[in-house]
Write a structure and sequence with these properties.
InterPro entries: DnaQ, Ribonucl_H, RNaseH-like_sf, RNaseH_sf
Number of strands: 10
Strand content: 15-25%
Protein name: DNA polymerase-3 subunit epsilon
CATH class: Alpha Beta
Number of helices: 6
Structural class: alpha+beta
Number of domains: 1
Keywords: Exonuclease, Hydrolase, Nuclease
Organism: Paenibacillus uliginis N3/975
Largest sheet: 5 strands, mixed
CATH architecture: 2-Layer Sandwich
Shape: globular
Mean pLDDT: 95
GO molecular function: 3'-5' exonuclease activity; DNA binding; DNA-directed DNA polymerase activity
Distance between the termini: 36 Å
Low-confidence stretches: none
Radius of gyration: 17 Å
Order of helices and strands: EEEEEEHHEHEHHHEE
Oligomer: single chain
CATH superfamily: Ribonuclease H-like superfamily/Ribonuclease H
């Protein structure tokens, strides 16, 4: 897979090949962090859930806070609901990362805006901590939806997909990594259902798929 930034507002994704998409095992994951700049911020929570047999397996989850080397700003604390006091006794990333890798084993990763944030953030964290970078294939719901609707000019926010697929989210606390993983999983299953409705069995980006990049909105 190749991700290529083409402007401040767009990137392209190519080289995606997933055979028999409905039959695959997936691991949906999400990170919370000290901020939105993947180059300077740090992971504060990792959440993940498994999708097997075209169903979210809520009994198969991964969830941990991560002690950050820098404090969470007050605005981010309010936004995520994760406070510095909750991280005082949390494990370091290097002490939980192998467990996360084991949880994702033999799974295709699913994320939302992960090509723009979660994967670059993880790459930087791995470099800082001398940890091996995850090598699983990864699908992003933004790219998948952009593949289905290349004519769209909207930025594909989470709420956009929630509304489009009529996803139930009232039972989930937003900006919690595990809850967001479950939410992204529900969105992914909606996208996968649309692939089936179009009689598309394999997810293949033969031509580069153009995706609108999210715009950073400062927290106050």
């Amino acid at each position: 897979m190749e991700i290529r930034i083409i402007s401040d507002t767009e990137y392209t994704v190519s080289g995606v090949h997933i055979k028999d998409a409905v039959k695959q095992r997936y691991c949906v994951f999400d990170f919370e962090s000290t901020g939105i700049n993947h180059e300077t911020e740090h992971i504060t929570q990792i959440g993940a859930v498994i999708i097997e047999n075209n169903c979210i397996q809520e009994s198969k989850t991964f969830n941990t806070y991560i002690k950050s080397p820098k404090p969470i700003p007050e605005s981010v604390e309010r936004f995520t609901g994760i406070y510095n006091t909750q991280l005082e006794n949390a494990p370091l990333l290097k002490d939980k990362y192998s467990d996360f890798l084991e949880f994702t084993k033999e799974s295709i990763l699913i994320t939302h805006a992960g090509y723009e944030f979660d994967l670059p953030l993880l790459k930087n964290e791995c470099q800082r901590n001398n940890l091996p970078l995850i090598t699983n294939p990864c699908l992003d719901t933004k790219a998948l939806f952009s593949y289905l609707y290349p004519e769209l000019t909207d930025i594909i926010w989470t709420d956009y997909l929630i509304n489009y697929y009529n996803i139930h989210d009232k039972d989930l606390r937003r900006h919690d990594a595990l809850a967001d993983s479950i939410l992204i999983g529900r969105i992914f299953l909606g996208i996968l259902e649309e692939f089936q409705a179009r009689d598309i069995k394999d997810i293949e980006f033969i031509d580069p798929v153009v995706v609108k990049r999210f715009q950073i909105i400062p927290l106050v």
